[in-house]
Each structure stands twice: as C-alpha cells, then as structure tokens.
C-alpha cells in the first residue's frame, strides 16, 4: 500500500511520462523521409525572421517581468529583469521541473532586498497572464474550428452549461465547508499573492494585452519556421500549434520538454495541415526556440551571475521554494516561452 501511495513520486512513473512520447517521436522520425532543409533565399529569410521574432518575444517577456517587479515594489534594474528572463528560460531548457524559475528567484532575491516568496509571486503573475492570454487564443482557434464544423447541438451546449454549474456549486460548497483551513492557507501564501493584486487594475489589463501580443509573436515564429521548410500554417494554424506545444509543457517532462513538446508539435501540425510533417520542421523549431536562448542564458549565468556556484546554491535552496506549476500553460518561453 505504501508503494501505491508513493506512486505519484515514483521516478519510474516520471520516466514513463518522459520516455513514451520520446519513443513515439523517435519511431515517427525513423519512418519519415530524409530532412529537407531550407535551400532557397526566401526559405532562409523565413528562418532568419523566426530567429529575430523569437529575440523580440524574449525582450517583450523581460520588459513584462520588469513591469511586474516594479509594480510589486521590487526595485530591480531593467538589465537584471531582461538578463534573468533569459537565464530562467535557459535553465528551463536544461533542468527538470522548470529549474530556471528557481534560478530566477534565487538570483534576483540575492541582488535586491526582495523576499524570495515575493519574487515567486511575480513569476506566478507571469504564469497567470500567460494562462489567460493562451486561453483567449484557444477560444479564437476553437471558434474558428466550430465555424468550420457547423453550429453545435443545443443539447450539447445545455449539457456543458449544466456541467459548469455543477462544478461551480461543488467548488462553492468545498470552500464553505473548509473555509477556515482555506483562510489559514491564504495567510501562509499571502507574500506570494501580493504581486497578483495589480493584475486586477488597469495596469493588469495593460500587462494582459502585452501577454497576448507575446503569444501572437511567438505563434508567428512557428509559422515562419514552417514556411522555411515548405509548410503553410497560416495565422490560425500557427496559434493552434503554439497552444498545443505549450499545453504539452504542463506534462512532467525531461529538460527541454523532450518528447512531450515534440509529440504535441507533430500532432498539432498534422491536424492543421492534414499532411506529413517533415522532420526538418521539428528540428529547426527546436533550434530556434531552445538553442540560442540557452547559449545566451548560460553565458549570462557565468559572466554576470556567478556561474555554477550560484546554480548549486539555488538547487540547495530548492526545498524552500514552492512549485511554480500551474494547471493551465506560460511557459521558456519560454515559453518558455516556449515552449512558455
């Protein structure tokens, strides 16, 4: 029985969650034709445009975090906000369980007077903004698909509304029944929740608009990489693929979301284009989204933020920092990111 109770902590279970999608992707790759790389001037231009657009996305994420930090009265410099955003995404790409976020928390709290829990709150604010922005994009994509498929059955709409009502009533009852425990929990996490308060103001609306723009630009990255290998995703298709890929980041995965991210990209691209997805698309997309930011991030970690000694200190401080996972993707890019 003890083994069953600890199953969710099992390294074997986590390994299965990582290896099954990876094995499926490897099998898929071995059955495909040899990769077709960009071989015309226009295709190379699309790829260069994707690299440039992802750099813009990273800068936008850095500026958004800087705004959240200052709204939360954390006097971090813009250079630290930008630099640690890159370091964080690099860490997410090579460390399991979003270790890059832990790096951001530890390094920024050591360079300012901010408490670690408050810094965690600013990253949580980023995640919430990403979740809402991606949710809006998914609604647009779903609406487009519904138009293509025809109007939904009134009975299905009624069933959906009743199900939502039942879930809302169940949540309200659970809160009322355990309100004292919930209040104690709320008091314990108040330092983390304080940076979320500005999200309910006009400033929060501005940040949300910025988050939507971030994901739209990132969707254009996917579209441009696709064009560089002869695939036309279009605006809706690019949004669909970026949404599926970032939802895959919620699944416990190895560093760089190996397997889960790739499977989601293949599935979504195939669903949108109804054609075989070339291996070159997956390889080039991984290169654009993961490689440059990882190189720059670890260069910054060593040259500006103390290198491996800081990394080891951050890992030792890990148990003090609660999980930053949310049940919705934002993300390396992160997103990620990037993947978010």
From TrEMBL:
Stated name of the protein: Unannotated protein
Listed GO CC annotations: plasma membrane
Record key words, sorted: Cell membrane, Membrane, Transmembrane, Transmembrane helix
Keyword Signal found: no
Keyword Repeat attached: no
A UniProt-annotated Pfam family: LPG_synthase_TM
Topology with respect to the bilayer: Multi-pass membrane protein
InterPro entries: L-PG_synthase/AglD
Subcellular location, record wording: Cell membrane
Regions crossing the membrane: 12-29, 44-60, 119-143, 155-176, 188-217, 281-303
């Amino acid at each position: 029985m003890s083994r069953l109770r600890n199953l969710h902590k099992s390294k074997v279970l986590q390994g299965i969650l990582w290896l099954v999608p990876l094995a499926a992707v490897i099998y898929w790759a071995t059955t495909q034709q040899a990769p077709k790389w960009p071989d015309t001037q226009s295709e190379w231009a699309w790829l260069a445009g994707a690299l440039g657009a992802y750099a813009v996305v990273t800068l936008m994420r850095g500026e958004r975090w800087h705004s959240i930090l200052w709204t939360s009265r954390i006097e971090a410099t813009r250079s630290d906000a930008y630099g640690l955003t890159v370091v964080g995404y690099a860490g997410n790409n090579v460390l399991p369980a979003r270790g890059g976020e832990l790096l951001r928390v530890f390094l920024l709290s050591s360079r300012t007077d901010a408490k670690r829990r408050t810094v965690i709150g600013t990253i949580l604010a980023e995640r919430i903004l990403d979740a809402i922005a991606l949710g809006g994009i998914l609604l647009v994509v779903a609406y487009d698909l519904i138009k293509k498929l025809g109007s939904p059955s009134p009975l299905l709409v009624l069933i959906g509304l009743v199900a939502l009502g039942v879930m809302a009533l169940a949540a309200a009852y659970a809160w009322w029944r355990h309100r004292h425990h919930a209040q104690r929990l709320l008091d314990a996490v108040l330092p983390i929740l304080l940076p979320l308060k500005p999200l309910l103001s006009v400033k929060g609306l501005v940040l949300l608009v910025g988050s939507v723009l971030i994901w739209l630009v990132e969707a254009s990255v996917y579209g441009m990489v696709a064009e560089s290998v002869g695939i036309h995703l279009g605006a809706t298709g690019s949004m669909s693929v970026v949404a599926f890929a970032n939802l895959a980041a919620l699944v416990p995965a190895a560093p760089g979301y190996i397997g889960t991210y790739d499977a989601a990209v293949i599935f979504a691209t195939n669903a949108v284009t109804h054609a075989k997805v070339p291996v070159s698309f997956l390889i080039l997309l991984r290169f654009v989204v993961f490689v440059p930011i990882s190189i720059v991030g670890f260069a910054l970690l060593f040259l500006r933020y103390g290198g491996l000694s800081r990394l080891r200190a951050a890992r030792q401080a890990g148990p003090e920092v609660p999980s930053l996972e949310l049940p919705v993707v934002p993300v390396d890019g992160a997103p990620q990111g990037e993947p978010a």
